Amino acid sequence: MKDNLIFDENSYTVEMLELEGKNLVYRAFEGIRYLNRPVDGKMQILSIFVPEVFYKGGSIGAYNLKNAPIFFQNTVGGYMPGPSERPGRNFMGNVNASFEALLHGYVVVSPGVRGRGMKDKSGRYIGTAPAAVCDLKAAVRFLRHNAGSVPGDVGKIISNGTSAGGALSSLLASTGNHPDYEPYLKAMGAAEESDHIFAASCYCPITNLDHADMAYEWEFCGINEYHTMKFGYPESGEDKPEITSVDVCMTDVQKQMSAELKHQFPSYLNSLNLKDEEENKLTLDEHGDGSFKEYIISVAAASVQKELDRGTDLSGLDWISIQDGKVKEIKFDGYIAFRTRMKVTPAFDNTAMGTPENELFGTEDLQYRHFTQYSRKHSEVNGELADEQQIRMMNPMNYIEDKKAEKAKHFRIRHGAVDRDTSLAVSAMLAVKLRNNGVDADLEYPWGIPHAGDYDLEELFTWIDGICR
Ligand code: DHB
Known about the structure:
Elements: E1 13-19, E2 22-33, E3 45-51, E4 70-73, H1 97-104, E5 107-111, H2 131-145, E6 157-162, H3 164-174, H4 182-188, E7 199-203, H5 209-220, E8 225-232, E9 242-249, H6 252-271, H7 291-309, E10 320-323, E11 326-330, H8 332-339, H9 356-360, H10 373-377, H11 388-392, E12 410-414, H12 424-436, E13 440-444, H13 457-468
Parallel strand pairs: 4-5, 4-6, 6-7, 7-12, 12-13
Antiparallel strand pairs: 1-2, 2-3, 3-5, 8-9, 10-11
Bound molecules: 3,4-dihydroxybenzoic acid.
The site of 3,4-dihydroxybenzoic acid has 8 residues, from loops.
């Protein structure tokens, strides 16, 4: 049979780009099909970008055409489709990570992946879970299939993504070669190769969705006002979206659900059997207090300390006690009030449906489904519950202990200190479970950062250079 998944080294353009005084010359291989039988031929393509100097026998730092790490960047947001992206500016007008990564000497691979809301010609949904992660896996397999000819080192694939994209990055990195995904990859005609990766950068992973509602209420129960922003698409002639604020108080029914969900969290958390670096158990009592909460506080305290060390005056924040330039105490309730609540209860599996996650767990012909027993039981729309296996395949926590899943060696997880899109517990549970299973996982809650990604590329690249050495 003819192999259609061969990388064509001769099909490229050379591009020049100057942004903010920095000049980049790169080779662009675009519109590459990574599947034999794509479901959507326009979205399921990838691009490869390479510093042009590599083709002149040159190098950037320690990197050249053969050994450069592959920065595998997804653009998924809100679990919507994430198209392949060129170096340039992002939707907020900022220079994107691909541009900076090329300047730094990485090969950039940008796969387009399916997401919620996508339909085929006959109106069937084609981007529901686990579509996006299967597409990422197929793109990785394509690179490995062409290991001898693609630029960069396929042994050093580092995935990067933010929010839903950060969740996918963590999922891709936790589930390498797991048989659960095999039937989907086979059906689309993915290359028969390994799909494990070397490392993952995950900004605010909106993950562990089936326990995210209870984690959210563990954190925010008692805070009954929620504050969020509505993004309108840019009007023609404008390059930035219109942003309006929404401030609402929860109803009595929602407050009751908040208390019930909060109450469910400790038994889930305790079932994970997490331990800190000194092998102390991380647990919660029935009130939601205990060593796991102290652990979250310690991560927050490290973030505050880093900011103090930069010389920032934080004396106006009454939930932080500081003595001689050192953090002495963080009051959890004060910190959470400072963060503020963003989402109404239940934050992800809404009883009235309509969240990005309800749509993620839809089917070919059903737009929204529930994915927790709790919201199914309290459904205001008599919604269906998603299949167990579909829910399972979207949660990296299910694969970390599973020997059949080849894990990435390194994870870098960041959750902004004032990012309220999901609970601080979600990133912490992921990082600690990885560490408990022998995986290197670096976790921080960077000070002052809201829901965002790619805001510390210098630090990210230093981390990548360190693990690739
Ligand atoms: C994203 C943000 C959310 O709050 C969410 O529930 C899902 C995805 C995002 O920005 O990708």
